[in-house]
Amino acid sequence: MTADADGAGRAGDGAETEGDAGSGRTAGAGDGAGTGGGGPEEASAATRHRMVDPPGLAPAVGFAHAVAAAPGRTVHLAGQTAQLPDGTIGAPDLPGQFHLALGNLVTALRAAGGAPGDLVSLTVYTTDVPAYRADLKHIGRVYRRHLGRHYPAMALFGVTELFDPQARVELVGIAVVPEDAPSGPSGDPAAGSG
Fold first, then answer.
1. Where along the chain do its domains lie?
2. If residue 74 lies in a helix (H) or strand (E), which one and from where to where?
């Protein structure tokens, strides 16, 4: 996906830079592109994984074309919507739903012993691609609040509906967590399993 006139791209709203010894890794708005600035609300998302954005492809803005994952445990994160603990959808608007869905995804990742920087892939499903595009700057700020300037391989798909009729966005992720990270909240591999 290419950037618009304001430098906005996918949810991460980053811009290609030369960082990481010419890896072409994407950087966030706080690095001088896109909207907003690095502030206290942005999460730190250090990563051990190598983001690959090869020359010859359009610049990766807010995502990486490929991720070479470091060794570790693979964690598959189920689709997360803006579902509250009581099962209801907690926001009517797309940015609000994106915020809650991404928070739920990070909660599941942390329960498996991971951190935002461990994400290697994120897939966004939305029932309203035009609204997603229209709210991209706000969604980018929400993204950075949860994931900082970590931009894994990403894809966005427009779908006709999601399982919950009130849901407008669903996020699915894959993470590779360091082998020495605890497997669950208590370090017990069975913790957090249903």
1. 15-177
2. strand 73-80
Count Cα neighbours of 55 within 13 Å in the Cβ-side half-sphere.
Answer: 3
| pLDDT tens column, 66-81 | 999 999 999 999 999 9
Which residues are registered as beta bridge partners of 64? Answer: 153
Question: Among residues 82, 79, 26, which one has the least CA distance to residue 50?
Answer: 26
Size (the chain), residues: 194
Would you report the helix, strand and coil content of the chain in percent, each value rounded to 5? 25, 25, 55
Q: Rounded to the nearest 5°, which phi and psi values hold at 193?
A: -85, 150
Higher-pLDDT residue of 116, 9: 116
Concatenating the DSSP letter of every residue in 13-26 gives --EE-SHHHHT--E
| Contact call for residues 100 and 92 (beta carbons, < 8 A) | no
Q: Which CATH class is domain 15-177?
A: alpha beta
pTM exceeds 0.85: no
The CA distance from 81 to 125, in Å, is: 10
Which residues are 15's β-sheet partners? Answer: 27
Report DSSP letters for 98-120, one per residue: HHHHHHHHHHHHHHTT--GGGEE
Q: What gap in Å lies between CA 184 and CA 165, rounded to an integer?
A: 31
Instruction: Compute the Cα dihedral for 3, 132, 159, 123 and give only its sign.
Output: positive
CB atoms closer than 10 angstroms to residue 22: 8
What's the pLDDT band for 118 if we cut at 50, 70, 90?
very high
